[in-house]
Design brief:
mainly alpha
Length: 265
């Protein structure tokens, strides 16, 4: 083989390696930047997340003189979904809105870092904020109700995909909507939609038929399905479909976020 042929094989490989190293370096820098810039907020967010989860877990018992184990288990296994999506879906768009208002948004877009790396870094921060709250909520639920939890290895993809989808939805919303006030209003509205009209903390059988059918097309119902399957021993035939629906939403939201970031201001 000629020297030029060998060089032709080595150079592209070296270029790929260099690109990977740069992406990893940029990823680490962005994660540190987010953690440093939000260090006080993250402590507060983590505390609010944990208190919210514990509040739902303990508050449900106030509706019953003697709470059924099935009701306690249903709520306790739905709370982790709330913990995992709130930061990325609600706080994320509000953070972008505040950056637009402060004038730092355009500066951040000029940084020589790929959109995928930036999104991955923010997703990591959302995981760091959400997972401790999930653990605290489940520990309190177990201590309070002595639940028959059965945590399987499926908790890993359930947590990662649930948080990813919530984060990408918030990421798409924050970057696609140019008006900060509209972004904040939509993100606040999502809180009421998730708590009141998504079957996360109560069975879907208690919803009107049309609303239950509508929820099939949105990811929140399916997030609860995969999370509940990962935390209990019950087999749900809807789990594969739920993973597929959540995955489609994650891809679509990521594509929307990439498109909105690629637009010229």
């Amino acid at each position: 083989m000629a020297t030029s042929d060998v060089a032709g094989l080595i150079l592209p490989f070296g270029t790929v390696q260099g690109g990977v190293r740069r992406s990893l370096r940029d990823y680490g820098s962005m994660v540190r930047w987010h953690l440093a810039g939000l260090r006080m907020w993250l402590v507060l967010l983590g505390s609010v997340q944990a208190l919210s989860g514990v509040g739902f877990v303990l508050g449900i018992s106030l509706f019953f003189s003697r709470i059924p184990t099935s009701a306690a288990l249903f709520v306790s296994t739905g709370v982790p979904v709330i913990n995992l999506v709130m930061v990325g879906l609600v706080f994320g768009p509000q953070l972008v809105a505040s950056q637009r208002t402060a004038g730092s948004y355009d500066y951040l877009r000029t940084l020589p870092i790929s959109r995928a790396v930036t999104a991955a870094a923010w997703y990591t921060v959302c995981l760091i904020s959400g997972i401790p709250a999930v653990i605290v909520s489940l520990v309190v639920a177990q201590l309070r109700y002595d639940l028959p939890l059965h945590i399987s290895l499926m908790i890993v993809p359930a947590v990662l995909l649930t948080c990813l989808t919530g984060t990408m939805l918030g990421y798409a919303l924050g970057h696609a909507v140019g008006n900060p006030m509209v972004t904040q209003l939509i993100s606040q509205m999502l809180v009421f939609i998730i708590f009141g009209f998504a079957p996360i903390l109560y069975p879907i059988q208690q919803m009107p038929g049309w609303l239950a059918d509508l929820n099939w097309w949105f990811p929140f119902r399916h997030m609860a399905v995969v999370m509940r399957a990962a935390l209990t021993s019950s087999a749900d035939p809807a789990v594969p479909t739920a993973y597929a629906v959540i995955g489609v939403w994650a891809v679509v939201a990521a594509a929307l976020a990439g498109w909105s970031l690629g637009r010229r201001p």
